[in-house]
Design brief:
- InterPro entries: STAS_dom, STAS_dom_sf.
- It comes from Saccharopolyspora flava.
- GO terms for molecular function: anti-sigma factor antagonist activity.
- This is Anti-anti-sigma factor.
- The chain is α/β, with parallel strands linked by helices.
- The chain has a single domain, classed as STAS domain (Transcription Regulator spoIIAA, 2-Layer Sandwich), CATH 3.30.750.
- It contains 4 helices and 7 strands; from the N terminus they run E-E-E-E-H-E-H-E-H-E-H.
- Strands 2-1-3-4-5-6-7 form a 7-stranded mixed sheet, sandwiched between helices.
- The longest helix is centred in the last third of the chain and has 16 residues.
- 30% of the residues are buried.
């Protein structure tokens, strides 16, 4: 798994810090070595009080603990009012994506923060529709729409 963090302008931690994967087998950093199936997580703070967690690649039970830990950490930010979960780049979504979404929904609810989900047009949207859980989440068509809604 590759995790990338970028901080809002004016913070002291820099921009685009890469956190190394935990297993040596996951350390495929070259443009030729990274495949579309590798799990990728990127965290950004595009606006004050808004966290954007973008996930791409395969979301399955193997990567779920790491993703949920990243989400838990980000959903505890002091001034958080909106969390955006961008799943539009997910190529494979097992039932683990449902666990991820429900955890994010509960964590945001505990914080009284708004959760916006960008499911994309692929696997995640299909899983939500097939399970009948689509109505539980405030969904947007794309990231631009989610960012615009976060300003309201």
């Amino acid at each position: 798994m590759i995790v990338s963090r970028s901080m809002p302008t004016g913070t002291s931690h820099g921009d685009g810090e890469i956190v190394a994967p935990r297993a040596a087998a996951e350390a495929r950093f070259g443009s030729h070595a990274r495949t579309a199936s590798a799990l990728r997580v990127r965290v950004q703070w595009p606006q004050r009080g808004v966290v954007l967690v973008s996930i791409g690649g395969e979301v399955d039970m193997a990567g779920l603990p790491r993703i949920t830990e990243v989400l838990r950490q980000r959903l505890t930010a002091a001034r958080l009012h909106t969390a955006i979960l961008d799943l539009s780049e997910v190529g494979f979504a097992s039932s683990a994506v449902l666990d991820l979404l429900m955890m994010a929904r509960h964590a945001a609810g505990r914080r009284q923060a708004r959760l916006l989900v960008v499911p994309g047009g692929g696997r995640v949207r299909r899983v939500l529709e097939l399970t009948g859980l689509s109505e539980l989440f405030e969904q947007t068509a794309d990231l631009d729409e989610a960012l615009a809604r976060a300003q309201r």
